Amino acid sequence: MITKYRFIYFLGLLLLWGCAVHAEKEKEPVDFVNPYMGNISHLLVPTFPTVHLPNSMLRVYPERADFTGDMLNGLPVVVTSHRGSSAFNISPLQRENDKPVVSYSYDNEVIKPYYYKVRLDDEQINVEYAPSHQSALYRFTFEDCNKSSNLFVNSRNGMIRIHKKGVSGYQNLENNTRVYMYMEFDIPFENAGIFKDGKIDCLESEMMGNNACAVFSFPIGTKTVNVRYGISFISLEQAGKNLKREIQDYDLPRLAQTGRKVWNEALGKIEVIAHDDEKNIFYTSLYRIYERPVCISEDGYYFSAFDGKVHKDGGIPFYTDDWIWDTYRAAHPLRLLIDENVEKNIIDSYLRMAEQMGNLWMPTFPEITGDSRRMNSNHAVATVADALSKGLELDYEKAYEACRRGIEEKTLIPWSGAPAGYLDAFYKQNGYIPSLREGEKETVAHVNPFERRQPIAVTLGTAYDQWCLSRIADALGKKDDERYYLRCSYNYRNLFNSQTSFFHPKDENGKWIEPFDYRFSGGMGAREYYGENNGWIYRWDVPHNVADLINLMGGRDKFIANLDQTFREPLGRSKYAFYAQLPDHTGNVGQFSMANEPSLHIPYLYNYAGQPWKTQKRIRKLLETWFRDDLMGVPGDEDGGGMSAFVVFSLLGFYPVTPGMPVYNIGSPTLEHAKLRLSNGRIFEIEAKGVSHENKYIQSVTLNGKEWTRPWFSHDEIKNGGKLILVMGDTPNKEWGSKVDDAPPSANDFID
């Protein structure tokens, strides 16, 4: 009998082990997402643990400074802009209160892309939350059944109105834009009134102004209150329609399960085989790319802050909240690979914005509240050129005109939407933006006193934008325009100092600004000459013509030496002094900044000079150093998907150095196996044989069964699917990809 029982016992253990293994195998992509990754920033704004569905209008995150924040500032209803604060707040409470938004001590917080849970520990209230696209559901569970349960619903600046089933209202945003909210409760409230000056007036049902707030009391003994709400940028009525279209009951687990399915469909477009920690980094990065832009079409209509009107969308969803200066580099190219229909709708939205603004200027920083025209250059043209180069169907005649006018007619001055003026005329005549000497008084209107002229950043960025224009013009048969803009794309040469091999500021008379320090000249963020980053970073900001940059520097060997020195050059000051001037220039390896977008392509530049093994070494080191599955696992300026797309591409093993050129540079994959479900339904596979922490160097490559000796491949070579196989080892194969003819193409290759 003992033997028999032992057999049954061990059989049970085996069955349990088998179930555990089976459960692990069934782990889905969204289970690898860690919204807390990078929530503690080194210096800059951290990542946010955002709860939302992919590219959806409704987004929330706990309102606190970062993960170290000890208090929650109420509970969010909707965030209308990446990094923005909540437009409304809801505060559950069972005690006396004199504030419209309650600050909570909290514990046991759980965040998933489709679900939020937290315990308000001092208040003894448990909170659950699940979103849909334009609506959401809260569940409040009160532990003390001997007290009345209350809900405070606040608009920071707008209107609140009590109705039979709950509350509605709006909040004023910038540029005559409003977000509307319609909310219902699953049980009748006992009392309700307007909260003002610390008191509740039950005779009032509506309030306008700052901190417009309504309070609802539920009977003593109420344990659970479910709250559902819809939001809209069109009207209160539409907010109610959005709610009733998406959420018909108060079944929060079912809503969360629906959201989970939506996320798995989105993240499942890329299937990877790797260790769990690598999957966590990969799928978390992919999740962040879906935070922006957001679709704001509501039942076939959308409110546009670009002209202040409601429009029919004509069956083409309208997208906004896209900081193009960050996202054009990698987020848009990734979307072109796996979801080109959404990318098409986004660019179509740009064109509608350009028309609605009345000047047909492409946007640069489109937000819910209109185009904020932040940063420098006009990189929406890169998204158009990239889409064209990869075969996306668009109205390219209209797109070209909007891109051209946005560069020719709008000023090149950073952070400005003014018409072209003196500096623009100077650029057209002389091929560069002139610089002032440090301390010299600014005389040009519209130059932001903080952001300054950023003349080198603008000159280099505009040269790239004009190269993109030349590609679109060429495809449209506009040969004169193509030749003109191709010549303009070499304007970076006008600021290249051959004595130092840096891009160096010049004054109006063509004289170098001297003396000059490529690390520290330029004031805060080096903005008097560059932009957020110093001269060491902008030394490499010629992504469209790396071959010419190699020639300017004196050949491959000198180019490699300069590139190496970028990663080796000391900060030159103590860290606190360096970052006091250059707070965006974080995630340093020497003078290289992993934490800011102008750096993303730099490690891949070795491919152009015959030493792709150094790209492999650098990429692997940067990924392992700065991107980890922990609270400080992002170095800084993530910007809602801009940098995360670099991580996704680099983990896969390739990267689009030059949007507008249908080419991908090969790096060093960290994943054993990946399958990308392309937009056309075909599968592109990447297999890294023998890959490990040590085995980061490519020994040999085949693409679609053919031996591959180039450290790059074209979009045409993978657009119909295929398989890239890389054999990895622990020592570099310095011969692979080293020949001059192996280098990726540059603008030089487009000269007739």
Descriptive notes:
- Helix content is 28%, strand content 23%.
- The chain is α+β, with helices and mostly antiparallel strands.
- A hairpin with a 3-residue loop joins strand 9 and strand 10.
- It starts with a helix and ends in a 23-residue tail after the last strand.
- The model is unreliable at 1-17 and 19-23 (pLDDT under 50).
Characterize the quaternary organization of these chains: single chain
Main β-sheet description: 13 strands, antiparallel
Structural class: alpha+beta
Q: Segments where pLDDT lies below 50 for 5+ residues?
A: 1-17, 19-23
Over the alpha carbons, how many angstroms does the gyration radius reach?
A: 27 Å
Instruction: Predict the CATH topology of the domain at 33-264.
Output: Beta-galactosidase, Chain A, domain 5
CATH class of the domain at 33-264: Mainly Beta
The percent of residues in helical segments reads 25-40%
Q: How many runs of DSSP E, i.e. beta strands? A: 36
Number of helices: 18
| β-sheet strand percentage | 15-25%
CATH architecture of the domain at 33-264: Distorted Sandwich
Overall pLDDT: 95
Shape: globular
Rounded to the nearest angstrom, the distance between the terminal CA atoms is 90 Å
